[in-house]
Design a protein that fits this description.
Elements (H helix, E strand, L loop, with lengths): L2 H11 L21 H8 L7 H13 L10 H24 L7 H16 L5 E4 L1 H6 L3 H35 L16 H34 L8 E2 L1 H20 L16 H13 L3 H14 L12 H13 L6 E5 L2 H26 L19
Parallel strand pairs: 2-3
Antiparallel strand pairs: 1-3
Organism: Homo sapiens (Human)
Protein name: cDNA FLJ58597
GO biological process, one term: cell morphogenesis
């Protein structure tokens, strides 16, 4: 091993877990020759389009009678919401750049709202075994909540298309914003078009907030099982693992020694051998090695149980670890990500939405507009 490699390994060592997996559970389950088949049977099919994957998951969920599909609901939606966030922020900034001097304050509020939403970059993910969902009577509740989520998503998509359509109208009517986001040359009716753009963007922001709150409600319903003393709570164990995997991933990304192709990894002969190697890496605190092995496996078996290149490597490792630790056992769950932070984000976003609504209404006093604005005082249920 070269001096550079030794230095890199030392950098990763500081992010390992001192007693990983030795807290709540004690001894890990023995290796199973069928574990990769179990993962393949229950894991949702990999799909490059996050929304298509979500719709496919809903169709499977409605026919789910044993909970094997339902347990992945939180993973699939988290990936979808991450995708929505990126497009939402881009659209918000693009639209805000077409607002002139009189509406610049509203544009700044829109950008602040989108930035606040991205500060909660990941929805919390709930890990639970299928038997627990069934025994606690949560499967039907989850199905109903998912249908409610889909209604909010459909409305969001409709409002997104309305905003995109009107933004295209604005771009075709007058010149785009300058570098500082201020329009320097506008036709006579441009302010009216900009105010209409504000209204549509407001409705879009408000709808995304409702979608976010609906997911909070779903998390809260399932998280109620945490009060049952007979269940094993792995939340702390998985949260610690996620934290250290994220830190190890950052080291890999920042160090050219860890770039693709810089490390000679063994080529696995089977998915089972690969999984066993990853589990050993996690057990021995070799987190950087586990992350590199995920990348190799995605190259060897694209869109298989290791996910696609667009999937979060840390999330994949967390899922493999949880499924292995609960193999042949029931009554286990873990909430990774603070539900309290979700409540705070929802409250702050609601306050921003109310400020934006009031600013638009004041601007309307100078223009006669008939477009309906939803009342921000009526919100979805948050934790």
């Amino acid at each position: 091993m070269t001096e550079g490699e030794e230095k890199g390994n030392r950098a990763l060592d500081q992010f390992t877990l001192a007693s990983f997996g030795e807290g709540d559970r004690g001894v890990s389950p023995p290796p199973s020759p069928f574990f990769s088949a179990i993962l393949a049977a229950f894991q949702p099919a990999a799909c490059d389009d996050a929304e298509e994957a979500w719709r496919s998951h809903i169709n499977q969920l409605m026919c789910d009678s044993d909970g094997s599909c339902a347990v992945y609901t939180f993973h699939v939606f988290s990936s979808l919401f991450k995708n929505i966030q990126k497009r939402f922020c881009f659209l918000t900034c693009d639209a805000a750049s077409y607002l002139g001097d009189n509406l610049r304050g509203i544009g700044s509020k829109f950008v602040s709202s989108s930035q606040m939403l991205t500060s909660c970059s990941e929805c919390p993910t709930l890990f639970v075994d299928a038997e627990t969902l069934l025994s606690c009577g949560l499967l039907d509740k989850l199905k109903f909540s998912v249908l409610e989520l889909q209604e909010y998503l459909d409305t969001y998509n409709n409002r997104k298309e309305a905003t995109l359509s009107w933004l295209a109208n604005c771009k075709a009517t007058f010149a785009g914003g300058s570098r500082d986001g201020i329009i320097t040359c506008q036709p006579g009716d441009s302010e009216e078009k900009q105010l209409e753009l504000c209204q549509r963007l407001y409705k879009l922001h408000f709808q995304l907030l409702l979608l976010f709150q609906s997911y909070c409600k779903l998390i809260g319903q399932v998280h109620e099982v945490s009060s049952m003393p007979e269940l094993l709570n792995m939340s702390r164990e998985l949260s610690d693992l996620k934290k250290h995997l994220k830190e190890a991933s950052a080291v890999i990304a920042a160090d050219p020694l860890y770039s693709d192709g810089a490390w000679s990894e063994p080529t696995f002969t089977s998915t089972e051998a690969a999984i066993q190697s990853m589990l050993e890496c996690l057990k021995n605190n070799e987190l950087g090695k586990a992350l590199r092995q995920i990348r190799e496996c995605r190259s060897l078996w694209p869109n298989d149980i290791f996910g696609s290149s667009s999937d979060d490597e840390v999330q994949t490792l967390l899922n493999i670890y949880f499924r292995h630790q609960t193999l042949g056992q029931t009554g286990t769950y873990a909430l990774v990500g603070s539900n309290q932070s979700l409540t705070e984000i929802c409250t702050k976003l609601m306050e921003l939405n109310m400020e934006i609504r009031d600013m638009i209404r004041r601007a309307q006093s100078y223009r006669v507009l008939t477009t309906f604005l939803p009342d921000s005082s009526v919100s979805g249920t948050s934790l």
